[in-house]
DNA sequence: TCGATTGAGAGAGCACTGCTCTCGTTTTGA
DNA sequence: TCAAAACGAGAGCAGTGCTCTCTCAATCGA
């Protein structure tokens, strides 16, 4: 086993970084389905079989890019949150939404890899991706939890119907150590899915022929609806 | 030119139907990216080059499947609407939502083709797909328009800010001949994107490890939030 | 009815893909 | 110093989309 700081180990790390970098570039220009290990190898100046020393398969390269994407999105959200007053709960939620939209529009191919169609025959291995994948929703939950504790959210505190749903939500509440009521968890799950729905709609061009001078204006309206949907002022 | 009802023409139509049918089967089992003209040809008992007599390219087969999918989804929505009291506006909107979710869960691969990542290098030709693609949102608009005319929707009738957004919404209103106020158009666009966001989240498994005894229960909560978001009782 | 045109299918072939295997060469750690 | 490990190259297999040419049958006009 080579030492961690041996020339060979450092060269290996550099090659790994190059593979991810070139892979990201191909992803951005050609999309996930067209991502080719052979093309990455060519750009690296290697023969195709050589990259299999670093990446076990095309799917593993996809996993690397998935983790890379989740991390970058998480960083974008955290950066946006850094300049928001922590007691401005609606502002924090809005900032998260804007950050997700901004990153999605800037990196549509990676966004599609994370939130678009599952690549057939490929399932992102949970142990490698969930850690980075839950960062955004984690930040959202933090906002709702903080807002609830501060009494800034108006929502019913009664159990939802039917009881089996109430049980599931209560279990999630317990497992995550939350103090927000069940109804807010349900509303949070809605807001989470709806937020990405709005961003996906715009990134994938599903609005179709409807054109807007400044699409961000419409998104701000959507954000207001999202903030409203969880009972934030 | 062969007659429209000549044996050759009828055989050709049958072969076209077979191609779409087999293509749908492969789509369902292997996904869009793995859709292979050669495999379709094998299942048809033809050599690969022969199917090019019917379908110009793999992308054209995808287009056929896109149109087929939009039509099937539109039929599902129309069927669901047929058994709803037309004056029950919230019920109509709920029925549309349930139909979209039900179809998406039943046909995840086709759903992914329509609402997931755009296939790289492939853009669905608008002239062939938009006709079927706007059916669902068309039904939604009908509900909101009817509800507004019946006075069943509570929403501000003042122009939205900024003015450039107001102009765009007013233009859409004029072009579609709507009587609903601008704010309701914006809320409708939100509800549209959010609805498909919720369905996509479930079809693509983005809820992750959070499990529900009956996911439909959660979706019903989401539907309530959607109905609420457009100002319907 | 006959000849020309058209459509359909088969087969070969090109360039590409993911991936495996073997073969030398270089670097590493004991 | 030397065996082991890592590395890169190359060949090869099976699959892909797509094009080209060939043959044969169906169709249509005169």
Automatic annotation (TrEMBL), chains A, B:
HTH tetR-type domain segment(s): 13-73
Cited SUPFAM superfamilies: Homeodomain-like (SSF46689), Tetracyclin repressor-like, C-terminal domain (SSF48498)
Keywords assigned: DNA-binding, Transcription, Transcription regulation
Annotated PROSITE patterns: HTH_TETR_2
UniProt keyword Chloroplast, yes or no: no
DNA-binding region in chain numbering: 36-55
The UniProt record lists the keyword Chaperone: no
Alphabetized PANTHER family for the sequence: HTH-TYPE TRANSCRIPTIONAL REGULATOR RUTR (PTHR30055), HTH-TYPE TRANSCRIPTIONAL REGULATOR RV1816 (PTHR30055:SF243)
Name of this chain's protein: TetR/AcrR family transcriptional regulator
């Amino acid at each position: 086993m080579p030492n961690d700081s041996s020339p060979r180990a450092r060269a290996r790390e550099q090659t790994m970084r190059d593979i991810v970098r070139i892979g990201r570039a191909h992803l951005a220009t050609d999309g996930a389905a067209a991502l080719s290990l052979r093309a990455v190898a060519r750009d690296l100046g290697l023969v195709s079989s050589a990259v299999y020393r670093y990446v076990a398969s095309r799917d593993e390269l996809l996993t690397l890019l998935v983790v890379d994407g989740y991390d970058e999105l998480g960083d974008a959200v955290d950066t946006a949150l850094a300049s928001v007053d922590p007691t401005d709960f609606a502002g924090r939620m809005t900032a998260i939404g804007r950050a997700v939209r901004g990153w999605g529009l800037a990196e549509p191919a990676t966004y599609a890899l994370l939130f678009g169609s599952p690549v057939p025959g490929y399932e992102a291995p949970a142990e490698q991706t969930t850690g980075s994948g839950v960062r955004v929703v984690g930040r959202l939950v933090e906002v709702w939890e903080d807002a609830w504790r501060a009494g800034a959210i108006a929502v019913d505190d009664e159990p939802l119907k039917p009881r089996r749903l109430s049980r599931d939500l209560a279990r999630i509440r317990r497992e995550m150590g939350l103090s927000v009521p069940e109804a807010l968890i349900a509303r949070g799950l809605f807001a989470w899915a709806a937020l990405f729905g709005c961003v996906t709609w715009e990134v994938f061009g599903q609005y179709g022929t409807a054109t807007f001078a400044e699409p961000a204006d419409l998104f701000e309206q959507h954000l207001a609806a999202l903030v409203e949907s969880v009972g934030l002022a």
